[in-house]
């Protein structure tokens, strides 16, 4: 079974003067502006790294949720923040890291079991597998037993 999702991107003009728009199949993003100014100058709109961060945070969190459910846990909450690092690389740029910070509450679960489940989710979520960079995980808080 293959699930195919898509997004479209347009760019009018070239280089720093160009302006782009990105839309997703679901409509969650619809003609969102992006370009040099949204990527490097904090102007309103989105950028590829922000979209990768959203994809990684949501994929990891869902993978962990399903992993915990598979272990028999049915109550709890997970909140992840993925931060993508973009570094200058010669004349271009390279994504060098995706750092996940995780806050979680899973009543009745021991911390060591939770850490094992979180690391498994980090290694096996499809977006972690996609990224060819250092993927780290920092569990910033956990409440269990």
Automatic annotation (TrEMBL):
Q: Name one Pfam family in it.
A: OsmC
According to the lineage, what is the superkingdom?
Bacteria
Residue ranges annotated as coiled coil are: none
What's the protein name?
OsmC family protein
Annotated organism of origin: Arsukibacterium indicum
């Amino acid at each position: 079974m293959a699930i195919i999702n898509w997004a479209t991107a347009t760019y009018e003009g070239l280089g720093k003067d160009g302006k782009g728009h990105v839309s997703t199949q679901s409509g969650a993003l619809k003609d969102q502006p992006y370009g040099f100014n949204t990527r490097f100058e904090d102007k309103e709109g989105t950028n590829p790294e922000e979209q990768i961060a959203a994809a990684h945070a949501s994929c990891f969190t869902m993978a962990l949720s399903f992993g915990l459910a598979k272990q028999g846990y049915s109550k709890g909450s997970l909140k992840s923040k993925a931060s993508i690092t973009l570094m200058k690389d010669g004349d271009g740029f390279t994504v060098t890291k995706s750092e996940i910070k995780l806050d979680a509450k899973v009543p009745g679960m021991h911390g060591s079991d939770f850490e094992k489940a979180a690391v498994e989710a980090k290694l096996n979520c499809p977006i972690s597998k996609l990224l060819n960079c250092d993927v780290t995980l920092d569990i910033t808080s956990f409440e269990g037993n």
